[in-house]
Design brief:
Order of helices and strands: HHEEEEEHEHH
Number of strands: 6
Oligomer: single chain
Radius of gyration: 15 Å
Largest sheet: 6 strands, mixed
Number of helices: 5
């Protein structure tokens, strides 16, 4: 992946009020994901923009990570420190960075809209060749599988 091309992809406009509503609407939600699909260097790229909802009553909204996924590779851009990371999203949000806000799991993440979740689910089903039924939170299960498969390829 060409990092310069990935970094140049504009972040979608985020409605802070809608992110706030999503964050307070679920139990222990700390992060909200907005998904995008773009072509980068003729390769289909799925982008997960992970926003953190923190502060008093989860009013402070900030873009934390941008995860760029292509069929056989992924990389994460950590916005706060302007660094590229190669770890899986679950490991990045669960690392000990000195901030308790980073001790998350997938149950503390939610997609902003059903369309965001469906975009991720359909893309990952195609890439993973997986049509199994998983019940609730399918996109997160497929995303975890996708990252594991890519990790094995690397």
């Amino acid at each position: 992946m060409i990092k310069r091309a990935l970094k140049a992809i504009p972040v979608p406009r985020a409605d802070a009020q809608q992110i706030h509503k999503t964050a307070i609407g679920g139990k222990d939600i700390r992060g909200v994901i907005i998904s995008q699909k773009k072509r980068v260097e003729a390769e289909e790229t799925l982008i997960l923009n992970v926003y953190q909802a923190s502060g008093r009553n989860k009013q402070d909204i900030s873009l934390l990570f941008r995860v760029f996924c292509q069929k056989n590779d992924y990389i994460t851009f950590e916005v706060d420190c302007n660094k590229w990371r190669t770890g899986a999203l679950l490991y990045l949000i669960c690392r000990d960075s000195g901030w308790s806000e980073y001790w998350w799991n997938y149950h503390q993440l939610e997609f902003l809209t059903a369309k965001d979740a469906k975009r991720v689910e359909s893309t990952l089903r195609r890439w993973n060749h997986n049509n199994m039924e998983y019940g609730e939170r399918v996109a997160f299960t497929l995303f975890d599988q996708y990252q594991h498969v890519v990790w094995q390829i690397k």
